[in-house]
Amino acid sequence: MHRSVRAIALGSVLALTATACLGSDPAEEADPVRNADATEVSLTIAANAVSGGKNAEEADWIENYVIPTFIEQQAEDGVTVTIEFQSSGVDDEEYKSRIALDLRTGSGADIVSVDGIWVGEFAEAGYIQPLTDVVGGDLVDGWEGWEQINDAVQANMSFNDERYGIPAGSDGRVLFFNKELFAQAGLPEDWQPTSWEEVLEAGRALQSIEGVTPIQLNAGTAMGEATVMQGALPLLVGTGAEIYGEDELWQGNTQNIRDVLALYEEIYSTGLGDPTLQQEAQGRDKSFAEFAAGQIGILMEGDYFWRSVIEPTAGVAPMPNRDEAVGYAMVPAMEPGSGINEQDFVSMSGGGGRVLNPATEFPQQAWELLAFMNSAEATKELVGDGARLTQREDVNSEILSSDPLLSFIAEEVVPLSAYRPGLAVYPEISLALQQATLDVVTGTTPEDAAAAYQTAIEQVLGGADDIASD
Known about the structure:
Layout: H1 2-17, E1 40-47, H2 56-76, E2 80-87, H3 92-104, E3 111-115, H4 119-125, H5 131-135, H6 137-141, H7 151-154, E4 158-159, E5 162-163, E6 165-167, E7 173-178, H8 179-184, H9 196-206, E8 213-216, H10 225-237, E9 250-251, H11 255-269, H12 283-292, E10 296-302, H13 303-309, H14 322-325, E11 326-332, E12 345-348, E13 352-356, H15 363-373, H16 376-383, H17 393-399, H18 404-413, E14 417-418, H19 426-441, H20 446-461, E15 467-468
């Protein structure tokens, strides 16, 4: 399905690239000093954002703040700049196909918004290059912003330990819990489990409350990527392994995978979780509504759940008493110290960022614009009166001071985060892992589900050479 969506989108991309050509061969080496002294500069920004539609906030920020402000700043230095915004409001896969073809053919925008998970794929294909190759090491490495962006956040726009872009934000996963239900079950208001067993113990205590599902851990294919990002992958890093490790092997039928699936079995075979909910087409949305209604005790989700789902006034499933009734805790490793890097607590983070087109005619000016877009001033302008995690620690410390959950994630959770591998085959690996969790939820043993998962990813990867198993 992943490949077919991309193929369908290519026809529409051809018409776009004909009008956006930069006229360079992407296979050629980038030239950091190309047009460095130009006083007439033309730049283009591409993002999957459109005013009045998808990601409208970003589109309005680019059109109404970034472009006019940067043009004015450059004019003060005697440089005349024109900037075009190539806005889109399409499905993410269609947008990805468009920009991939642009970058492959040496056309497209100078600054391109991408999902962090695409970085490795684009880098391996040669569509993008390290920032230091495009712009020059002194300019890139000397940017003040790197000191304000945590290394874990920088990793989302990096590949093979090289920066390919600047992240545009971050997020983190935590365990949300209902303090009122906890009080009824005799559990502490300041709950912070230190192992999976302590999470299970809290769930068992919550079983004493009629009509309450103790634990919601996303599972199955119906919940899609939410199953792995808010379920399997945080658990996996809690066993000490990432889905794709530094040894360049994918986790197959390993003890780590079996441990994750065994936790799913424990939750869904003992009544701690609702197996039916994991199989419904709108199961995740239903889980949100049930948590807001006080019918779920513990739920693993990202910070957007707090700021967009159960937000007291405008949330998808608003909780008027959110600030008093909802607690949050870091996701524990399987056992203390068993997480990656011997961590006691773990998280997964996602998000996107912006890269430079290696074929840009104005690499240094494009870098100046990219750096400006990620300055403290511009970042605060994008957030406006709202509250969300940004890529910059200095901005977070200023704008999140009144939001305890977002401050908690920015300060305590994000530095512990791991990220999904930005490789083209990842979506198919993810689907196989989703299926493995579904198998367990519907009664398959963890051992058999892990074996089936191994077989599935062998088919994806064309054999077992790139798979760790034991």
